[in-house]
Amino acid sequence: MNFSLAKNWTEQSFNELFQQQHMTVILEDQSSVQADFYFLIDKTFDMKQSMAVGFILSENIFLPYLSIRDNLFVGSSIKEREKKKFLNNLFDYVGLTTSVLNKSEEQLNTFEQIKLQLVQLLLVEKDIIIIDDIFQALSIGQRQELLPLLQKIAKEKQKAILVLTNDIQIAESPYMDKIIKTA
Question: What is the rounded average pLDDT of the residues 32-53?
Answer without folding.
Answer: 65
